[in-house]
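Explain my protein.
***
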Amino acid sequence: MSAAREEILARIRAATDRSATPAAADAEYAALPRGYLRAHHDPAATDIVALFAERAADYRAVVERVPEDGLADAVTRAAAGHPRMIVPDGLPADWIAGLPADSIVRDDPPLSARELDAISGVITGCAAAIAETGTIILDHGPGQGRRALTLVPDFHLVVVEAAQIAADIADALARLEPARPHTLISGPSATSDIELIRVEGVHGPRNLHILITAETGIAAVTRSG
């Protein structure tokens, strides 16, 4: 057995050994060599929010930067044309203050796949976002709902707070709770066949609309890919 294989198996045994102390495992993990580049952007020298907006728009998402006090109006405007929107438990009530009460659908009791397919869209928050890749991360906590809610409806409206945007993947992962399930979203669902014909909406929403909350007074800027 090669030394590398033995080391891998030893780490697996150590990780699954219930008698081992978490502190020892954490110390061993922290001691691993990390000579790779952990960050591509210095948040102090880069407009991380603008970079995220640009990269997300490159994926053909619709991206808006809106002032915090204009978020409810932006949600109402973005949801226009979608008569039934799923609102997960824990989503701030002031975000959806402008939505008609009869357009709001709750996932309680949990909706079936057939019921979800009949609903036009979903609005959620997020756990974090990555500027380098234009990616949104859900950990399905309050205001995000279970994974099916953001996979079946054709339209996903997501609110990203500027403070949630991390510069790089390593920075974003450090903000997350490892024990939670995570869904990474980079633009609307899309795939291409061998002839590079792009098809959208195959395994997720065909339309992704991102509202980035900014400081009050910042003019709203809309970008669409």
The longest strand covers residues 207-214. The helical segments are 3-16, 22-30, 48-58, 71-79, 113-117, 169-174.
